Amino acid sequence: MGSKSEAHRKPRVRPAAVSEYPRPVGVPVQQTQGDTYRAQRGPDGHERTAVPRDMAQARAETILTNAGEGFFALDADGRFTYINPQAEWVIQHSAHDVLGRVIWDVLPREMTSAVKGPYERARTDGVVASFEGQCPNRKKWISGRMQPTRTGGLGVYLRAFTTEKRIQLELQESDERFRATFEQAPVGIAHLAANGQWLRVNRRLCEILGFSREVLLAQTFEVAMRLADLALDLEQIELALRDKIWSYDIERRFVRGNGERAWCHLSVSLLRDSDQTPKYFIVMIEDISARKAADEVLGATAHELRLPISHVKGFVSSLLRTDMDWQEDIRRDFLAEIDHETDRMSHLVDDLLDRARLSSTGQSQTKRSPTTPGELIAGGLRRVRPDLVSRSVEIDVSAGLPRLEADVPAMERVLANLLDNANKYSPPDACIGISAGHVDGMVEFRVDDAGPGVPDEDRERIFQPFYRRDAGDRLPLSGHGLGLPICRSIVAAHDGHIRVVDRPGGGARFIVALPLAPVQRFRKATTTSY
Fold first, then answer.
1. CA-based nearest residue to 95, from 86, 103, 84
2. Is the pLDDT of residue 529 over 60?
3. Cα–Cα distance, 307 to 478 (Å, whole number)
């Protein structure tokens, strides 16, 4: 039995003996009793010490067996000639399994792809090549290096570093999460050196300030804030550097790179090293323009509501006085004023709700339906007919205009509002006009008045909530300044636009442009409407 197993056992090939490695001339060689040595000089000028083969083999195996890392040797054909116990544990194969076999027949396929390149470099270029890879079935990470030998083979050192790799991957994932959070944050974030130089800025910060990343990183924080006309509290920054405070925040108006004025909330905090040395500032800039605009609308709303409420309060208080005996016609006048002021408040609240709905949803509540420009103009005129009894209105609708899809009640309201404004700002005996035409692939509605016109500086402001232009003493203002902002919201929800220009011959012309309805979409709508 013993002889049979010996016959089938694979020969164990020894590693290169230590006597094959060169020693510089003059280096003493330690001898032990009974050992026989023979020294000779090689052609390269080094002295080689011949050691008995059995002794060299035993010493080499002792060194490699006790080594702290795995090791195996390959011959010129890539066959295993030696493997130590540590390497057996790493690759999960015993010496009996691998000696004499080609490395590619032993390593898992996944590891082969990681080792192939370094193997070829070490063999071809004669350099030490490193590698690392994972055995998916064992969830084990292995790293190693391949060192060429004089005989054309390779000495391969390797170790399992699963724990270290997991820590490395966790750190890498944590860094990637930080980078993603930093870059995709909804607020502007930057890291700033203590000398004021930008270290890192995210995409949102560039968008808020209106400058490219390259422009910001090329200058200091103070210069960038000066470009944005953003006043800094340098005293607070100095207090942070002196460790008196750890952060501060302010709200400031600033100017974007395109010249647009906006509001931001600026927060600055200082990060320190473990020895409390200032490391860098963390700067956060949040665009609060929308909130500030909402605050302005809220303040203007309170102002607009205060006047009718005070009127109602005054008339009611007068009617409740017990020391006055009001005549019936005066009482009726008081009640009529109360009725008028409550209607005014009701209209204001309705307009505020409409604007809030349009701002939050970005679209009209009613579904769009096929219609014609002429039908929309007729509907708008019906809404304001009682106010236009004595007004001359010129109507001009081009023949053959294409149909369009619209929220009909909402668009009728837009045209009615523009007609009401034209009536309000035109002299009593003047003619106003409304027309429709096909311009640049869109349907344009034009409402003309005979008033003083709109100055260039007011042509955007009139679309802001509660803004009303001064038309002069001869044209008293009425309304509450929400009509045009609501018109713009409705038109924008239709993917259109509204603007004001000078009317030829004097006055103002308001232009509403709406896109045409797609033919297929229109046909589908008309088919389902029957």
1. 84
2. no
3. 13
Residue 476's closest CA among 425, 422, 510, 418? 425
Q: Which amino acid is at 392?
A: S
Amino acid at 337: E
CB of 205 within 8 A of CB of 190? yes
Residue 215 in tokens? 């422009």
- Is residue 51 within 8 Å of 61, Cβ to Cβ? no
Residue type, 443: V
Identify the CA nearest to 370 among candidates 529, 494, 522: 522
- Residue with structure tokens 């034209």? 422
- The Cα–Cα gap between 166 and 252 comes to 46
CB 424 within 8 A of CB 452: no
Mean pLDDT of 348-374: 69
Torsion angle defined by CA atoms of residues 74, 77, 81 and 86, in that order, rounded to the nearest 10 degrees: 30
**Residues 64-87 pLDDT 10s:** 565 568 899 999 999 999 998 888
Domain boundaries in the chain? 2-159, 185-287, 291-361, 369-526
Say if residue 475 is exposed, middle or buried (CB neighbours under 10 Å; 0-12, 13-18, 19+).
Answer: middle
Under 8 Å CB-to-CB from 96, ≥6 apart: which residues?
9, 10
- What residues have CB less than 8 Å from 78, skipping those under 6 apart? 102, 103, 104, 119, 154
CATH architecture of 369-526: 2-Layer Sandwich (3.30)
CATH class name, domain 185-287 = alpha beta
- Whether 2-159 and 185-287 share one fold: the answer is yes
Q: What is the CATH number of domain 2-159?
A: 3.30.450.20
- The pLDDT-based confidence of 6 (bands split at 50, 70, 90) is very low
Taking phi over 0 as left and psi of -120 to 50 as alpha, with beta for the rest, 81 belongs to alpha
> Following DSSP, what letter does each residue of 345-379 receive, concatenated?
HHHHHHHHHHHHHHHHHSS-SSPPEEE-HHHHHHH
Q: Are 390 and 418 in contact, with CB atoms under 8 Å apart?
A: no
Tokens (6 digits) for 141 = 């990470």
Cα torsion 430, 435, 440, 443 to 10°: value is 140
Q: Hey, which bits of 197-260 come out as E strands?
A: 198-201, 247-255
- Please tell me whether residue 518 adopts helix, strand or coil conformation: coil
Dump pLDDT digits (tens) for 377-414.
999 898 888 778 788 899 999 888 888 888 888 888 88
| Residues near 416 by beta carbon (within 8 Å), at least 6 away in sequence | 379, 380, 381, 383, 384
Contact (Cβ atoms closer than 8 angstroms) between residue 413 and residue 490:
yes
Name the class of domain 291-361.
mainly alpha
